[in-house]
């Protein structure tokens, strides 16, 4: 019977008999793929900036264009984020030690247009403007996450997930999980609010701290201490917290950067404190702004012994909440008895959920969250894929808090 044949059989009925037409499965697969690509007006191949090693130059290669199967969107990146530290991950021997499969086309977040929507998409359509997230989550267990084309994670499950989504947005096309692709209302954001498409790239920095602040249920009128507050993601947290209606106490060592943060809102909405290196001195400075409801921490790797952590915990009111989102790889000392006695809640958050990304976009579309030049943010560079070396070096030199550097694989 047809079921036992290694080829696909099509049954044709005639008046007197049933005849079998055998079609080789390999040809059928190729024909089906070409039909799908043609159906969605997709080219057979696309161009990606592929790295075979962090110690050798990348090359522009032709790759097979993905098909928008169920749950998978194909997009055309317009502005692909180049993080400031890309030169420490994909070049110069990867001094940060990030683990990722090779070969790889990097690029996590981007602003893009939908090239082809999957059959199960209920709202996305070709041509629609979207924000594509860095985070990829397991559909079976959303707690399993990877940073697409950056880090494959520590487990077999995360490595398996990364393997499927290794190639990112430093390319002319990219596939993405449906739940990581978020529509941007051009009619509101561009036509009414007057934003440029390139300004939306800052969403990649803003969405991360929103995840932590939302997880500790920051409320309008509350006071949130953001310490430190002068890095790329921590300064983004100041913008987000203000949009959520909170008063912000921004803490850091860079006094110029702190002064710039204070200008983001009317007097009294943002207060600043310099990290002194002494717990008692920091605590005394923070006491002027108590009660403090939330302490948001997204400290970098070297900050495990910084004075601000202990001082910030002691500055929280009874029943206060602490959000941990930073990248400290080791342990930190916690005042156990003080936390217990004062019923302080500590909540760890890695990145954000898909729904939180959609919620942040709503805040932007309502005009409450300000981004781009009106919020002191700027585009520091735009580069074609061919100019990869200049682009990565420019991101290292000119990127950072409130500054975006992009690859522009496609025209707007």
Q: Any chance you could write out the topology, listing elements then pairs?
A:
Blueprint: E1 8-13, E2 18-23, H1 25-39, E3 45-50, E4 59-64, E5 72-81, E6 110-116, E7 129-132, E8 135-137, E9 145-147, H2 156-164, E10 174-177, E11 181-183, H3 186-192, H4 203-215, E12 223-226, H5 232-243, E13 247-252, H6 255-262, E14 270-274, H7 279-286, E15 292-297, H8 307-315, E16 316-324, H9 336-341, E17 345-348, H10 354-365, E18 378-383, H11 388-398, E19 403-407
Parallel strand pairs: 12-13, 12-15, 13-14, 15-16, 16-17, 18-19
Antiparallel strand pairs: 1-2, 3-4, 5-6, 5-10, 5-19, 6-7, 7-11, 8-9
Helix pairs in contact: 4-5, 4-10, 7-8
Q: What share of the residues does DSSP label as strand, in percent?
A: 25-35%
The average pLDDT value, as a whole number, equals 91
Number of helical stretches of at least 4 residues: 11
Main sheet makeup: 7 strands, mixed
Work out the radius of gyration: 24 Å
> What fraction, in percent, of the residue positions are helical?
25-40%
Distance N to C terminus:
54 Å
Question: Uncertain segments of ≥5 residues (pLDDT<50)?
Answer: 1-32
Find the count of extended strands (DSSP E, 2+ residues).
19
**Structural class determined from secondary elements:** alpha/beta
Order of helices and strands: EEHEEEEEEEHEEHHEHEHEHEHEHEHEHE
- From the spread of the alpha carbons, the general shape counts as globular
